[in-house]
C-alpha cells in the first residue's frame, strides 16, 4: 500500500515522458554520438547506437498501435511526423553509405527493413522516406562482394513486398516517373495482386509455387482487361517519356543478387523479382520497365543455357527421371548423390523459376520463351535427340516437358517439336517417333517422351501426332454404313440437336454393353487368369478420376463432339469413273495412314509376345491415356469395337484381336500352361510386381514373355472396358 502511494507521488513530481519525448531523446543521443568525430572509428557494436535505433522503431510501432486502438480520438502521430519533417532517415542512410561507424550499414539496412514491414503505413510515398530508400539502394550491388549481402537483399525484398501491397508507388522507383511530395496523394488506393502467394506467406510449398497467379477464366480476363484499360488503373501515361538510360532501379538492384554464391540469397532475390513482375500495374509502354525486363529475360535465358549445357551426357537415365526439385527448395546434402546431380538440379530449378516468371508477365513470357526455345531446346537438346546421344536427349526432354506448367513455355515446346504450320511430315516430333520404329535402343525413351507430352497436353502437339491423321476418319468404311447398324444414322440425326440428352453419340453408343463384352470376352476362358467378365470394376474408379482430369486439361481445345466423315465434294459422272495409270480408281488407291504414333503403338501391341514386360507396360500406358482423351475420332479408333473398318486400316480392337489369336495358338502348346498363367499373374499383379532375377533363369524363361504378354493384354482389356463405360456414363448423365 505504501509502495503504491510512493509510485503515485513519483508520477506527480516526475511524470513519465511521452512517446514523442522518448523518440526525440533517442534521436538526439544518436546525433550527439556522431558529432564526436573521434568516436566514429569505433565499431557500432561497441556503442549504444543499435539500442537507440531499436527504441525509436519500437516507439513508432507503439504509437501506430495506440492510434489504431483509439482511432476516434483523432490523436496525431507526433513521432511519425517528426520522422517525416526532421528527416532522420537521410542522416542514417548517409552514415550507412560511408560506413561510419564501422558496421553501421548493416544496422541501417535492418532498421529500415523492419520499419517498412512492421508499420502498417510506413508512408513510403513521402519524400522523406522514399528518397533515402532509393539512395540506400545504390549501395545494394550484388555483383560486388559485400559482407552485408543478406541484409541488403532482405531490405530490397521488403521494399518489393511493400510495393506489392501498394502497387502505385512503383512509379517512385523509376527516375523519370518520380513525383514530389505534393503529387503522391492517393497512391495507396490500389490493392495487392490477387492470389499472389508471396504476399500470404514467406515460406512457399512446392505445389503452391506452381499455382498460376494469372486469371484463367475468360470472363475474368476480359473484365481485367477492361479495368486495365481505364485511366484509373494506369500508373504511367501511355506515351512514356523515359530516356534510353532509364531503368526500373529496384528490379535492377534485386537482379544483381542472382549471381550470388549463397543459394539462400539467390532464392530471396528470385522471390523479390517474382513480386515485382507479377504486378498488374506495370505499364507495357514504359521504356524503363521494358529495358529491365529485357535484361532479366536474358539473364534467366543465359542461366538456363549454361546449366543445360553443363549436364553430363553420361548420367544414369534413372537419375534424371527421379530428380524432382523446385526453384525455392534446393535438395539437401543427405539426398542421393549421383554424377551430374548439381548440374541437373540447378537446371531444373532455373527452369521451374522461368516457368513461374512467364506465368506472371506476358512481356517476359514472349522474350524468355523465345530464348528458352532457341538456347535450350534447339541448341542443347535437339543435337542430342538427332545425332549425339538419343536416350539421354529423350529422357532429358521428357523431364523438361514434365517440369513445365505454363502454357507459354509449352507453346514454345510445341513450336520446336511441330513448327508453326502443321503438315505432319517433316516436323521434329514425327522424326523422333519414326526413328523409334526400327531402333530398339531409343524405343522405351521415345515412349516416355510421348507419355510426358500426353500428361502435359498441348493442342498443336496432339494434332500433329494424332488428329492430323485420324480426323479424316479414313479408318472407317463408310460403304458399309447401311449394313452394319442403324446407330450411325441415329448419330447423324442427333448431331447438333439441343434437345438431345446425349452429349456425344460417338462416346455413348446404344450398344455399349456389346462394346464392353467385346473387350472382356476377347480372350478365351482357358487363357484367363481370372473368371471372365469380373474385376474390370477395379479400374472404374481410376478411369473416372482420370477422365475428369483430362476433361479439365483439354476443355480449351477445339475438338468436335461427334466423329463424322468429312463431306466429299460431288464429282461429275466422268470424273467419278476416272482411273489412274494403273487402272485403279484414286478413291480405292488411297490407304488410311494412322500417323507415326498410332502406327508405332499398334506395332508394339502386335509384337507384345516378343517384347520385354517393361516395354509392353509403356505402350499400353500411352494407349490408356489416349483412350481417355475426350475426342470422338480417337475414341472411335481406340474404343469402338463395332465400327466397320476400312480395308488395310486398323483399330485398336482389330490389333488386340490379332494378338489374342496369336496367343491362343501358341500358349496351349506348353505343358501345364494354365498353372503358368496363374503363377505369372500372381507375380506381375503383386504390389510391387515381382520381376524375374537374372540368376534364376530356367528353361521356361524363353517363353516367359509370352505369358507376361497374356496377363498384360487381359488387364489392358479390363481397363479399356472400364474407360468405355465411364465415357458412356459421362456422355449420358
UniProtKB/TrEMBL annotation:
Domain (FHF complex subunit HOOK-interacting protein C-terminal): give its ranges.
Answer: 594-686
Pfam families the record matches: DUF5917, KELAA, RAI16-like
By its UniProt entry, which InterPro entries does this protein fall under?
A: FHIP, FHIP_C, FHIP_KELAA_motif
Write down the superkingdom of origin. Eukaryota
- Sequence similarity: Belongs to the FHIP family.
Protein's recorded name? FHF complex subunit HOOK-interacting protein C-terminal domain-containing protein
Q: Which organism is it from?
A: Chironomus riparius
Amino acid at each position: 500500500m505504501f509502495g503504491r502511494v510512493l509510485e503515485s507521488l513519483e508520477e506527480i513530481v516526475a511524470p513519465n515522458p511521452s512517446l514523442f519525448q522518448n523518440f526525440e531523446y533517442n534521436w538526439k543521443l544518436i546525433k550527439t554520438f556522431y558529432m564526436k568525430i573521434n568516436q566514429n572509428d569505433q565499431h557500432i557494436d561497441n556503442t549504444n547506437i543499435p539500442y537507440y535505433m531499436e527504441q525509436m522503431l519500437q516507439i513508432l510501432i507503439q504509437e501506430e498501435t495506440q492510434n489504431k486502438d483509439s482511432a476516434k480520438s483523432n490523436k496525431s502521430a507526433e513521432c511519425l511526423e517528426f520522422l517525416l519533417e526532421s528527416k532522420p532517415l537521410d542522416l542514417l542512410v548517409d552514415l550507412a553509405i560511408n560506413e561510419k561507424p564501422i558496421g553501421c550499414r548493416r544496422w541501417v539496412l535492418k532498421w529500415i527493413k523492419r520499419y517498412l514491414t512492421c508499420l502498417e503505413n510506413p508512408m513510403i510515398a513521402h519524400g522523406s522516406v522514399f528518397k533515402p530508400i532509393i539512395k540506400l539502394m545504390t549501395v545494394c550491388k550484388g555483383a560486388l562482394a559485400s559482407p552485408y549481402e543478406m541484409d541488403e537483399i532482405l531490405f530490397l525484398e521488403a521494399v518489393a513486398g511493400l510495393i506489392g501491397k501498394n502497387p502505385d508507388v512503383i512509379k517512385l522507383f523509376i527516375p523519370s516517373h518520380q513525383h514530389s511530395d505534393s503529387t503522391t496523394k492517393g497512391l495507396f488506393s490500389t490493392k495487392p495482386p490477387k492470389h499472389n502467394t508471396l504476399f500470404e506467406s514467406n515460406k512457399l510449398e512446392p505445389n503452391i509455387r506452381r499455382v498460376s497467379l494469372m486469371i484463367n477464366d475468360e470472363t475474368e480476363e476480359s473484365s481485367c482487361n477492361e479495368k486495365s484499360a481505364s485511366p484509373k488503373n494506369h500508373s504511367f501515361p501511355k506515351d512514356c517519356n523515359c530516356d534510353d538510360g532509364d531503368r526500373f532501379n529496384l528490379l535492377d538492384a534485386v537482379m544483381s543478387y542472382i549471381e550470388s554464391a549463397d543459394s539462400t540469397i539467390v532464392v530471396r532475390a528470385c522471390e523479390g523479382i517474382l513480386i515485382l513482375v507479377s504486378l498488374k500495374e506495370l505499364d507495357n509502354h514504359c521504356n524503363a520497365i521494358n529495358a529491365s525486363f529485357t535484361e532479366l529475360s536474358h539473364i534467366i535465358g543465359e542461366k538456363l543455357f549454361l546449366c543445360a549445357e553443363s549436364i553430363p551426357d553420361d548420367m544414369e537415365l534413372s537419375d534424371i527421371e527421379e530428380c524432382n526439385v523446385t526453384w525455392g527448395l534446393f535438395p539437401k546434402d543427405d539426398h542421393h548423390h549421383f554424377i551430374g546431380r548439381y548440374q541437373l538440379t540447378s537446371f531444373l530449378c532455373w527452369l521451374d523459376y522461368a516457368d513461374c516468371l512467364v506465368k506472371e508477365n506476358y512481356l517476359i513470357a514472349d522474350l524468355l520463351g523465345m530464348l528458352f526455345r532457341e538456347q535450350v531446346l534447339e541448341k542443347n537438346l535437339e543435337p542430342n535427340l538427332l545425332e549425339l546421344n538419343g536416350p539421354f536427349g529423350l529422357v532429358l526432354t521428357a523431364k523438361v516437358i514434365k517440369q513445365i506448367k505454363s502454357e507459354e513455355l509449352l507453346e514454345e515446346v510445341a513450336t520446336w517439336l511441330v513448327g508453326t504450320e502443321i503438315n505432319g511430315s517433316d516436323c521434329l516430333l514425327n522424326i523422333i517417333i519414326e526413328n523409334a520404329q526400327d531402333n530398339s535402343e531409343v524405343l522405351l525413351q521415345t515412349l516416355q517422351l510421348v507419355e510426358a507430352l500426353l500428361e502435359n497436353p498441348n493442342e498443336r502437339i496432339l494434332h500433329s501426332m494424332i488428329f492430323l491423321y485420324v480426323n479424316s476418319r479414313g479408318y472407317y468404311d463408310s460403304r458399309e454404313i447401311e449394313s452394319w447398324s442403324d446407330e450411325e444414322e441415329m448419330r447423324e440425326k442427333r448431331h447438333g440437336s439441343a434437345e438431345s440428352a446425349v452429349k456425344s453419340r460417338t462416346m455413348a453408343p446404344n450398344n455399349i454393353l456389346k462394346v464392353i463384352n467385346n473387350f472382356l470376352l476377347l480372350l478365351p476362358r482357358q487363357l484367363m487368369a481370372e473368371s471372365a467378365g469380373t474385376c474390370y470394376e477395379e479400374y472404374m474408379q481410376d478411369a473416372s478420376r482420370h477422365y475428369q482430369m483430362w476433361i479439365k486439361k483439354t476443355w480449351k481445345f477445339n475438338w468436335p463432339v461427334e466423329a463424322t466423315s468429312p463431306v466429299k465434294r460431288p464429282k461429275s459422272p466422268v470424273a467419278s469413273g476416272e482411273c489412274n495409270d494403273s487402272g485403279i480408281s484414286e478413291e480405292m488407291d488411297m490407304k488410311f495412314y494412322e500417323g507415326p504414333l498410332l502406327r508405332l503403338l499398334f506395332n508394339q501391341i502386335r509384337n507384345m509376345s516378343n517384347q520385354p514386360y517393361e516395354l509392353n507396360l509403356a505402350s499400353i500406358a500411352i494407349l490408356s491415356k489416349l483412350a481417355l482423351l475426350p475426342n470422338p475420332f480417337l475414341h472411335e479408333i481406340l474404343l469402338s469395337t463395332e465400327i466397320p473398318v476400312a480395308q488395310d486400316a486398323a483399330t485398336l480392337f482389330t490389333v488386340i484381336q490379332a494378338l489374342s489369336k496369336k496367343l491362343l495358338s501358341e500358349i496351349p502348346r506348353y505343358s501345364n500352361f494354365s498353372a503358368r498363367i496363374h503363377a505369372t499373374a500372381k507375380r506381375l499383379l503383386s504390389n510391387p510386381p515381382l520381376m524375374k532375377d537374372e540368376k534364376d533363369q530356367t528353361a521356361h524363361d524363353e517363353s516367359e514373355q509370352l505369358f507376361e504378354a497374356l496377363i498384360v493384354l487381359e488387364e489392358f482389356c479390363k481397363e479399356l472396358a472400364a474407360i468405355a463405360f465411364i465415357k458412356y456414363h459421362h456422355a449420358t448423365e
